[in-house]
Amino acid sequence: MTVVTDAQADPRTPGQRIDQRGRAELEFVVALRTGMTGALRPKVRRRIEESGVLAPETGIDTADIVAVREAVDPVVEAAAAHRFQAASLRWSREISTPRGVEAFDRRRELLEPMATPSAPVEDLTDGDVPRYWTYEFHATEGGWDGHDHMGFVHHEMVYQYLLTKIYGGGGDIFALRRAFADRAPADTYADIVDLGCGTGQYTLKLAEAYPEARITALDLSQSELNYAQRRAEDAGLDISFRRAAAERTGLPDESADLVTSYILLHEMPPHAIKSVFAEAYRLLRPGGHVHFGDVGAYATRSGYDAWNDDWDAEHGNEPWWRLAATTDIAEIAREAGFVDVERYELLPGGHPMGTTARKPLQED
Ligand SMILES: C[S@@+](CC[C@H](N)C(=O)[O-])C[C@H]1O[C@@H](n2cnc3c(N)ncnc32)[C@H](O)[C@@H]1O
């Protein structure tokens, strides 16, 4: 491994934005997580499979996640590999963002100019944000806006530095967002609204996939939005970012052809998901589409995957994941007035899952 000292590091190079101490701390987390997923998860999985508690003859339906957990938890709790995996996952999640924040603050003078947009993104919330949004998702201390540059910390340090190594072998872990953007029902759109855009990971892929479209992207996190705006400016893209709730966008009626989101819905309770579909219906012109990508439905996952998703969500500060994975999203879409509702698996195995639907035309 090549060691780059702080004096040699060029902050314009993504892997070198973090100082040496920060890189060492995050590399330790990477080693722990890759060792864990590489060596321990398969062991735990084998143990579950060999126990037979999810075998077809037990009659357990994966949609009944309480029954799945009751069957599997006692088996894994007895396994040292699982206990180590549980402890290290919890610990690595708890420390990743604070270490990123500290690394940012140590180099604030250097990094702040790279993190700041030409002007802060406009806040349309009037301070009225849903209570569920203030939860510390993924164990992020202080929540989405727990630091004035949390967007930069999440994007550059947690996602680009840590998660690309844990999940992507250094590759583009955001390629799936581009693949998802390409799966929207029409080939072109004039006006797209991206809900829960974060630092623009999906928004920028939408801009690639639909270069002619006017894109409006909303989120509730000021710091995520500010860095999204900065990323768009750096890429030479004209995207309209606003701080607003997905269920109360403040945008005009019938002003969009596509209302979309990627991994937003599992971060809200079912009543808010219903409000998002209602808001999308209001925003769409007749014939327009929704296209929402989110967590796989437990009912179509294997027993092991459903257990693993649910266990991970419980230990990864994802309070609404289980409900999103067991709520009938297609039914919510139909209740909101949509037609041609379809659910599809973006990847084999059933996670993530896409939902597409159409606002009917008058003549329908
Ligand atoms: C997991 S991130 C996904 C970000 C982005 N779509 C992506 O592909 O990486 C979820 C985002 O949804 C935002 N969010 C959660 N609830 C929201 C709501 N009701 N309205 C707008 N944004 C919301 C959070 O602030 C966060 O930035």
From TrEMBL:
Pfam families: Methyltransf_25 (PF13649). Keywords: Methyltransferase, Transferase. The keyword Manganese does not apply. InterPro entries: Methyltransf_25, Methyltransf_Superfamily, SAM-dependent_MTases_sf. Residues 192-288 form the Methyltransferase domain. GO terms for molecular function: methyltransferase activity. SUPFAM superfamilies: S-adenosyl-L-methionine-dependent methyltransferases. The keyword Methyltransferase applies. It comes from the Bacteria. GO terms for biological process: methylation. Gene3D superfamilies: Vaccinia Virus protein VP39. This is Class I SAM-dependent methyltransferase.
